[in-house]
Amino acid sequence: MAETQVMDAGEVRRALTRIAHEIVEKNKGTERVVLVGILRRGEPLAARLAEIISRIGEGDVLFGAVDIALYRDDYSVRHAAARTTRVPFDITGKTVVLVDDVLFTGRSVRAGIAALMDLGRPASVQLAVVVDRGHRELPIRADFVGKNLPTSRSERVNVHLSELDGGEDGVFIEKPEAAL
Amino acid sequence: MSVINFAGRDLLGLEGMSRDEITTILDTATTFSEVLRRDVKKVPTLRGKSVVTMFFENSTRTRSSFEAAGKYMSADVINISGSTSSATKGESLKDTFLTLQALTADLVVMRTPHSGACHQAAEWVNIPVVNAGDGTHEHPTQGLLDLMTLRDAKGSLEGLTVAIVGDIAHSRVARSNIWGLHAMGANVRLVGPSTLLPADADRLPVTVFTDLHAGLEGADVVNVLRLQLERQARALFPTEREYSRLFGVTKSALRVAKPDVLVMHPGPMNRGLEIGGDVPDLPQSLIEKQVTNGVAVRMAVLYLLLGAEG
Questions:
Q1: Residue B145 in contact with residue B22, Cβ under 8 Å?
Q2: Whole-complex ipTM
Q3: Of B23, B41, B45, B152, which to mutate for an interface test with A (greatest number of A Cβ within 10 Å)?
Q4: Which structural domains are found in chain B, ordered by start?
Q5: B5 min Cα distance to partner chain A (Å)
Q6: Residues B25-53: pLDDT tens digits?
Q7: Which of A55, B192, B227, B307 could cross-link with B7 by S-S, CB 3.0 to 4.6 Å?
């Protein structure tokens, strides 16, 4: 397995700080903004963005996490463990910022939007990701991007987060064995 | 714990299931409890899948909870009851199953008065078969929802002492509970008159008590079973009144159990017979939670069995 690091912990932190500022700027404050992470990696990312927004004095933003296993379009071809959605607030009328680690085909985000719609009727949905690696299969784009990363379809992009993986944050590109 | 892939498998009984397998189902069921608390209880997961429930015995909660589970997950649910099926015209069970398979059912849920009939049916068809109760053998989804309810209440099943009281010989619920609790590390007691204890009790991982007081002493949980009068060919106890006096789980009988003892009953209940009239309404009664968890467990079973392989 050949893994190349493309972002270190400092870069991830600065990217999230910038995204937090951009969320506040785009929405002219945070009055109606809530953050919902896509499980698993979107959850700690949403929590971190909420913490940064609070630290820069823009108020306390509610955050939660949504599971997309029940909304995937590949249920019949891929086994996915279901996890528990935790959105302990009403999203109706809110600006929901959906948060995920990597934006790739757009199918997870499609499922995430479908999952949100079953919980209420948001005024609008925005998308924040740490990495946009291209290769979209659906007309979906991110509003807030940590880093645009050109990749080949056969590579994997792994985002390590200290909350889930231990150690330091980082973003890595993994090349398939055959390419070595 | 490793997560187990159940795709394409049958669910015929809890006997022989591992702790990891049971834990996978309980964890999945716990995530589905969240869906049941939503305003809109519907997810699109099983869109395009068809589930057939076939009940050759009466049932309220099991059949309706399988139906609710399928519908909340957007599966198409077709209900067949024994009295309206071609079985009354003399069609064999095998032909009925082959017909259901030819009608492109993706999964069959069956309840039958015949122990072992679900195992037999599972050999005939290559779609998953779920046992919703076969005779006096097993009722695995009831066992799983009992395990889930207890795990929710206690955090873990390891080391709990669970007394199953009543008509155990005729109870498929008892058998599924025995195997499931055993796999999860709980200690199981069977309590009842010797005529209502299973003949093969020495083969089961249990301790047997024929005295209610001794059987409830120090118990963490009491699971009360109904007297299955419809399955009892002959008199196995003198009168219902005497049974109730000796084995009825009343408030005063519960005094010897742990102070925080939990009470369960798979339903339907006969208040004042096997369970004290006021016991189901005590704060430590889990009976209503059992019913709600039944839907979540059946959603998990459908999700896992109809899922993708690999």
A1: no
A2: 0.78
A3: B45
A4: 19-139+291-305 (3.40.50.1370), 140-286 (3.40.50.1370)
A5: 8
A6: 999 999 999 999 998 899 999 999 999 99
A7: B307
